[in-house]
């Protein structure tokens, strides 16, 4: 069994579902240690114990967030050497992938991104070509650095909780790291996080610039709002709402697709949703090939009616 290092970045008060997936996967591969950047809250510490983490390593320098990714990679390299890690797991976000690349250089380690599963022997499975194929690959180096796509592992606490010991590792100085000079708080929507949401209502080009009906249905259902790339590229909604091959991967219980044609790159991000409801005025639209329920109609007729009915039933 390998020593597995899991990078958790600024977990805040409670860990994200994608972090729980990393911890669950790590436990299936060997003894897991968390390399933690940021505060360790009581609830995060309790979750680490619940998920069977053997140890927590924190950077001796606490200013990693003053810079872009370089010092985080330096911290992880030091933590991997400290624990003799054979596998390092990170999330598959753009930042996670950039840290993984830098870490790979520092450790002369093979890096595999877009991972959806890992066998006990370290063989990683990747979903490629918009989810049409799954490939298996294994790093031939002493350490493998893997970034895990969200929503591919079911979070599961360990059969018995642990009492992880916390220690620090020195972060080597990083030359010429880009320093962050300003931050701006994103306005909170009050809606659930798109990748973790149980219900997603997504709109496409068929919304013709007006996401109001999508947002109203989402709020009636307590859902997150998603979008096709056509809608985000048009500037109708922010890019972080994009679902698909070059956007987010979601796997909710219910995905409502409104005015989206169902191109392969859109399907790649949502086809594992449990129930898919598609609303489209074109009966030949490819989205109906993967929909569990299809409504052939105009989104501006269907969405407000659905919202009104849901509100009525909820009282
Ligand atoms: C490398 C690459 C990566 C990509 N990554 C992504 C990605 O991550 N996510 C993504 O979504 N796309 C991605 N795309 C783009 C993708 O190929 C499609 O162009 C895009 O998904 C189309 O968006 P759409 O379905 O909203 O628009 P369209 O394909 O134009 O479809 C609009 C649909 O709305 C219907 N419609 C129109 N008006 C109404 C109405 N009033 N009521 C009901 N239905 C209506 C139409 O019948 C049509 O089916 C990528 C493309 C490439 C090449």
From TrEMBL:
UniProt-listed SMART domains: ETF
Gene3D superfamilies: HUPs, TPP-binding domain
Pfam families: ETF, ETF_alpha
Classification via SUPFAM superfamilies: Adenine nucleotide alpha hydrolases-like, DHS-like NAD/FAD-binding domain
Domain Electron transfer flavoprotein alpha/beta-subunit N-terminal: 4-184
Source species, domain of life: Bacteria
Required cofactor names: FAD
InterPro entries per record: DHS-like_NAD/FAD-binding_dom (IPR029035), ETF_a/b_N (IPR014730), ETF_a/FixB (IPR001308), ETF_asu_C (IPR014731), Rossmann-like_a/b/a_fold (IPR014729)
Self-association state and partner proteins as the record states: Heterodimer of an alpha and a beta subunit.
Family note: Belongs to the ETF alpha-subunit/FixB family.
Job of this protein: The electron transfer flavoprotein serves as a specific electron acceptor for other dehydrogenases. It transfers the electrons to the main respiratory chain via ETF-ubiquinone oxidoreductase (ETF dehydrogenase).
Official protein name in the record: Electron transfer flavoprotein alpha subunit
Organism: Pseudarthrobacter enclensis
């Amino acid at each position: 069994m390998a020593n597995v290092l899991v990078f958790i970045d600024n977990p805040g008060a409670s860990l994200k579902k994608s972090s729980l997936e990393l911890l669950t996967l790590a436990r299936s591969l060997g003894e897991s240690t968390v390399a933690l950047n940021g505060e360790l809250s009581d609830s995060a510490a309790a979750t680490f114990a619940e998920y069977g983490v053997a140890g927590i390593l924190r950077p001796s320098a606490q200013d990693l967030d003053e810079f872009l990714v370089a010092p985080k990679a330096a911290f992880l390299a030091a933590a991997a050497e400290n624990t003799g890690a054979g596998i390092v797991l990170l999330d598959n976000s753009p930042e996670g992938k950039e840290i993984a690349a830098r870490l790979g250089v520092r450790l002369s380690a093979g890096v595999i991104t877009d991972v959806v599963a890992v066998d006990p022997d370290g063989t990683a499975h990747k979903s490629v070509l918009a989810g049409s194929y799954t490939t298996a690959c294994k790093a031939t180096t002493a350490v493998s650095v893997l970034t895990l796509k969200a929503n591919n592992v079911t979070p599961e606490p360990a059969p018995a909780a642990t009492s992880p010991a916390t220690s620090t590792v020195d972060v080597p100085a990083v030359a010429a790291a880009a320093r962050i000079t300003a931050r701006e708080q994103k306005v909170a929507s009050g809606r659930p996080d798109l990748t973790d949401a149980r219900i997603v209502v997504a709109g496409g080009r068929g919304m013709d610039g007006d996401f109001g009906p999508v947002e109203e249905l989402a709020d009636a259902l307590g859902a997150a709002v998603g979008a096709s790339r056509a809608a985000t590229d048009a500037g109708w909604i922010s890019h972080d709402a994009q679902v698909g091959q070059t956007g987010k991967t979601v796997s909710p219980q219910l995905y409502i697709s409104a005015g989206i044609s169902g191109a392969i790159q859109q399907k790649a991000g949502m086809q594992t949703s449990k129930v898919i409801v598609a609303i489209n005025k074109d009966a030949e639209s490819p989205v109906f090939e993967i929909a569990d329920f299809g409504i052939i109609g105009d989104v501006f007729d269907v969405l407000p009616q659905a919202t009104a009915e849901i509100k009525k039933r909820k009282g």
